Amino acid sequence: MSSEIYIGPPRLTIYEIARILAIRAAQLSAGAPPLIPVHQGMSIADIAREELKRRIIPIVVIRVRPDGRWQAIPLAKLEIMEDI
């Protein structure tokens, strides 16, 4: 697989950010261990957001085109432009 991103922008879209945060928050609430040190008063959403900012969540974003072509992109290769 090529390391070049050829489907979509080289950054996470706001929709991908929302979905990743929701999925990770659900995992944490179901008992998955956090990937960062947790401080007193941090909510599940705070933990998921910080993990995403550090791009340490082991998630692959799959982008699909209308013609059926698709690309799996590791989270670490995508930029995060929005303030999350």
Name its key features:
84 residues; 12% strand; elongated
Q: Could you explain the architecture of this structure?
A:
The protein has 84 residues and is of the alpha+beta class. The chain contains two helices and two strands. The protein has one domain (14-77): RNA polymerase subunit, RPB6/omega (Eukaryotic RPB6 RNA polymerase subunit), CATH 3.90.940. The protein has helices at 14-29, 44-54; strands spanning 60-64, 70-74. A two-stranded antiparallel sheet has the order 1-2. The mean pLDDT is 92.
Secondary structure: number of strands:
2
Mean pLDDT comes to 92
Count the DSSP helices.
Answer: 2
Low-confidence stretches: none
Class inferred from helices and paired strands: alpha+beta
Largest sheet: 2 strands, antiparallel
Rg over CA atoms: 14 Å
Looking at the structure, the CATH topology is: Eukaryotic RPB6 RNA polymerase subunit
Provide the CATH top-level class: Alpha Beta
Shape: elongated
Task: Please name the fourth-level CATH homologous superfamily.
Answer: RNA polymerase subunit, RPB6/omega
Helix content: 25-40%
What gap, in angstroms, lies between the N and C termini?
Answer: 29 Å
Placed side by side, the strands forming the largest sheet appear as 1-2
Total individual domains: 1
CATH architecture: Alpha-Beta Complex
Task: Summarize the SSE layout with pairings.
Layout: H1 14-29, H2 44-54, E1 60-64, E2 70-74
Antiparallel strand pairs: 1-2
Helix pairs in contact: 1-2
